[in-house]
Design a protein that fits this description.
Blueprint: H1 3-6, E1 10-13, H2 20-50, H3 57-85, E2 90-92, H4 93-126, H5 131-134, H6 137-163, E3 172-173, H7 180-184, H8 192-225, H9 230-258, H10 266-291, H11 294-309
Parallel strand pairs: 1-3
Antiparallel strand pairs: 1-2
Helix pairs in contact: 2-3, 2-10, 2-11, 3-4, 3-10, 4-6, 4-8, 4-9, 6-8, 8-9, 9-10
């Protein structure tokens, strides 16, 4: 392949092939969801910073999850909203590759953060007397840093393997952003190595962590059942059930996209599920943690009371 065949200037994002009126409806709806995502996760970050009672390892990881959700949605949604308005739905080659890298990096980081949060809950409930020693701030910082570094390095591996491929047309990506599987379909070379690496990475970043989470929560459930106090059981189960809801939503949709057999309409299925964990999941996370968590609701009431008292 020659230089100009490999380094094409731009791709066309097909997005959602709908009527103009339907696209305007989706524009308003998705803009509302994106606003809720920013406000909800921003509120979680603000409450954790303002309330000293939330300066614990659990909320330390939750603050990182909120940052990932804001970044994850901001990487994909603004371009999607712009394409719902513009007729020319193009994206340059370099921004497309950057979008692919960030999308993979944030997705991998969120997977690992959910594992770190499940480990925190396991230690808190199964080894409460040693919790302060095991989950020290040094350990929490190392775990959070490891999540970001590992997620970014794995995404970089995918992008390096992607950049070795020539792209000589067609230039149309049947997606609303530069999702890696959709971009690979445009390559003019054998992509089996990329497919194998993606599947292997899915096993490493999805199946492995999911098994770890399920094993941790099996131990947690057994420990909760041994708690004598009804109030203690309720509080422990409320905290853990919130985390399990988030784990189920995120891991379930990701496994369907990257590991389940393809349906009759794989591209449309990918777009719907990608929309779910690019927009809906980041929006639902703060709602799940705030509505089912008495400490977060208490911190919110405290902040609102201070504002009214001024």
């Amino acid at each position: 392949m020659t230089q100009n065949q490999t380094w094409i200037t731009e791709f066309i994002l097909l997005g959602f092939p709908l009527s103009p009126s339907t696209q305007m409806l989706l524009l308003g709806l998705f803009s509302l969801f994106y606003t809720f995502t920013l406000l909800g996760n921003g509120a979680i970050l603000g409450l954790i910073c303002l309330d000293p009672r939330l300066h614990t390892p659990m909320y330390f990881f939750l603050s990182h999850l909120a940052v990932v959700d804001i970044s994850y949605a901001s990487n994909n949604v603004p371009k999607m909203l712009a394409n719902l308005v513009n007729r020319k739905k193009t994206i340059s080659f370099v921004p497309c590759i950057v979008q692919t890298f960030l999308y993979m990096a944030f997705a991998h980081t969120e997977c690992l953060l959910l594992v770190a949060m499940s480990y925190d809950r396991y230690v808190a409930i199964c080894h409460p007397l040693h919790y302060a020693v095991i989950m020290s701030w040094r350990v929490c910082t190392i775990l959070a840093a490891a999540c970001w570094v590992c997620g970014s390095l794995l995404a970089l591996l995918h992008v390096v393997l992607l950049l070795r491929l020539p792209f000589c047309g067609p230039h149309k990506i049947n997606h609303f952003f530069c999702e890696i599987l959709s971009v690979l379909k445009l390559a003019c070379a054998d992509t089996r190595l990329n497919q194998v690496v993606i599947f292997a990475a899915s096993v490493f970043i999805l199946v492995g962590p999911l098994c770890w989470v399920l094993a941790s929560y099996t131990r947690i459930l057994l420990a909760i059942l041994r708690i004598q106090s009804g109030e203690g059981r309720r509080k422990a189960f409320s905290t853990c059930s919130s985390h399990l809801c988030v784990v189920g939503l995120f891991f379930g949709s990701a496994i369907v996209i990257y590991m389940a057999p393809q349906s009759r309409h794989p591209e449309e299925q990918q777009k719907v599920l990608s929309l779910f964990y690019s927009l809906f999941n980041p929006m639902l996370n703060p709602l799940i943690y705030s509505l089912r968590n008495t400490e977060v609701k208490g911190a919110l009431r405290k902040v609102l009371w201070k504002q009214r008292s001024r």
